[in-house]
Amino acid sequence: MALPPNVHDAEPIPAAARDAIDALMQSGDLFRYTAPEDAPVTLLEQEYAALLGSKYALAVSSCSAALFLSLKALGLPRDARVLIPAFTFAAVPSSVVHADCVPVLCEVGENYRIDMDDFAAKLDSVQAVIISHMRGHTSDMDAIMALCDARGIPVVEDAAHSLGTTWHGRNIGTIGKVGCFSFQSYKMVNAGEGGILITDDADLIARAVIMSGAYEHNWKKHKGPHGENTPDLEQAFAKWQNQLPLYNLRMSNLSAAVIRPQLPELARRVRDGLANHDYVGERLNASPYFDVPAPLAPERRAPDSIQFNLADLNEAQTRAFAAAAEAKGVKVQVFGLSTDNARAFWNWQFLRDIPDLPQTRAMLMKACDVRLPVRLTRAELDVIADILLAAAEETMGLAAA
């Protein structure tokens, strides 16, 4: 069997980014507010909003920072309850706690999407919702928005894994009141760290900009659509000047210089990532031991990893499968079995109360995750699929013996 590919390295950073970084290093102009206008971070915000089809964008230090600022910008009262899926990364409930709110967890099904019955049952007890499109799996946004809009409950989209994913042709992150994205190295656009939020709400973006660290009158360097300051945006900034605390969660010009040249690559990366995922998924689904859940009908995903459930394997067999795959060179993360996994809700010991969520727990105990960077070739994908299939056959063969 051929050697497995390295799935940790990302695509090379475009040469244009290296040129922009060299220019910044020569000038020393790394702070986003030094330039009178058109700093790299400002340009990134304008380009990103236009790319996604949103009016406003704010680039910050991480997606966690974007989620936190979104909640603070909503003006929620202390101890407001925020409904989140129980299958998400620990940064999501952490952002709720940092915003002086209380996370409320709802069940997630075997297809990694929100259980709509549990969601609806808990909705009347909350003041806001964060929808995590975890690993790019989109829940039923039609049903979610109908339920939340009827109650006047704002929806924040955690789209950290979903840049390029669409729902009915509309970009994920533009459906709720605000969308939050990540530029961490394992995401579709890689800056090592970084995040951005988008919204069409002038008052919300003004509050978020000021709290992100736009002290004094630096908010004037933030622009609306087409690089303009619209009257409603200027009025919102003037309203909140000196009225809000500063958390200093800004992005630097260096990060923006790394990100901007990657945006034109997004369409290709989305296309290649989806093709890679579907190719490996089809091979795995041909085996009786694997179940790769299908997307919902309105959803077009932009994956750079694959998730699958192990069918009819008990915990011991699941552990044996993961060990066999790793021995052959493919690391399989089983969300509920990987020690101290930050995506297993029972490890979020910082919460006031950890609920009993048997459906989500059962899913996490058999849900597997394997990276599939978009740069992989068909031959490399075959090596990964061959190893996973062989590990399953080996595990079940030993069980039968």
Overview of this structure, please?
With 401 residues, the protein is of the alpha/beta class. The protein folds into 2 domains: 15-263, Aspartate Aminotransferase, domain 2 (3-Layer(aba) Sandwich); 265-400, Aspartate Aminotransferase, domain 1. The chain has 13 helices and 14 strands. Strand 4 (128-132), helix 6 and strand 5 (155-158) form a beta-alpha-beta unit. Helix 1 (15-27) packs antiparallel against helix 9 (253-259), helix 3 packs across helix 7 (202-213) and helix 7 (202-213) crosses helix 8 (231-240). The two termini are 24 Å apart. The model has no long low-confidence stretch (mean pLDDT 95). InterPro entries: DegT/StrS_aminotransferase, PyrdxlP-dep_Trfase, PyrdxlP-dep_Trfase_major, PyrdxlP-dep_Trfase_small. Keywords: Aminotransferase, Pyridoxal phosphate, Transferase.
